[in-house]
Design brief:
The protein is mostly helical and 111 residues long. The protein has helices at residues 17-25, 35-49, 53-69, 73-91, 99-110.
Length: 111
């Protein structure tokens, strides 16, 4: 029977196994947009395009209310109204209103 070598095996230079394993574990799952961040983006877009002043005021008030009590009911109602406004603006091809923006609003409403 042959004796086992008492010298440690040398490591081959390259990528450590932990980094390679970490890359395989990571998945490409998209997180649904946060209702608060989408509402802020909607408010900024409404202000930039000078659309629906009452809706702007409602979203601004609902954002303050949401930050205080974390109840999204008002934001959801306001985003539903904004979704309709931006769908119309998308069909008019208003500059600054993209299909991705409209779908982000829709995803925030679903999630």
């Amino acid at each position: 029977m042959a004796k086992a070598s008492s010298t440690p095996a040398t490591k081959v230079e390259g990528k450590p196994a932990s980094k390679a394993a970490a890359k395989k574990v990571t998945s490409k799952v998209k997180a649904s947009p946060d209702i608060e961040s989408v509402s802020m983006a909607v408010l900024e877009k409404l202000i930039a395009l000078k659309l629906d002043l009452q809706l702007q005021a409602d979203i601004e008030w609902c954002l303050g209310s949401y930050s205080h009590d974390k109840n999204p009911v008002g934001l959801i109602d306001s985003l539903k109204r904004a979704f309709q406004v931006f769908k119309v603006e998308l069909t008019k091809k208003t500059k600054g209103v993209t299909a991705k923006f409209v779908t982000d609003i829709e995803e925030a409403l679903k999630g």
